[in-house]
C-alpha cells in the first residue's frame, strides 16, 4: 500500500497561483502573518491535508516534562508537584511516560 500526498500532483517547487480572496478566513489570517510567497509554499506542500498547530501552552510541556524527569531523585514527588504547580498524581504520570518512552527506545 502506498500513501499519496495531495501535493504530489504538482511539479516539485511549483507555487500555486492564488489570490488572498480565494482563501477561507483562517487561511487569510495565516496569509496575513506569513505573506504571499510563504503561503504559496504552504499550499503547495500541505494543500488538501489537515494540519494541526499546537497552542503555545502545549509547546512548552515537553521541556517542562523533561525538566521534571531530570530533577526527579526517586523520592521527591511532592517537591516537584509544588515546584511545577501540578498534582503528585500528574508528576507520577509524567515520570511513567518517560519510563515508557525509554523502554521503547531500548526495544527499538
Summed up:
The protein has 108 residues and is mainly alpha-helical.
Describe the protein's architecture and organization.
- Helix content is 59%, strand content 0%.
- With 108 residues, it is mainly α.
- The model is unreliable at 1-7 (pLDDT under 50).
* Main beta sheet strand tally, sense and closure: none
CATH class of the largest domain: Mainly Alpha
Question: How are helices and strands ordered from N to C?
Answer: HHHHHH
Put simply, the count of helices is 6
Distance between the termini: 24 Å
Q: What's the topology here?
A:
Blueprint: H1 25-34, H2 36-46, H3 56-59, H4 61-71, H5 77-84, H6 88-107
Helix pairs in contact: 1-2, 4-6, 5-6
Task: From the structure above, extract its key features.
2 domains, disordered N terminus, 108 residues, Arc Repressor Mutant, subunit A, 0% strand, 59% helix
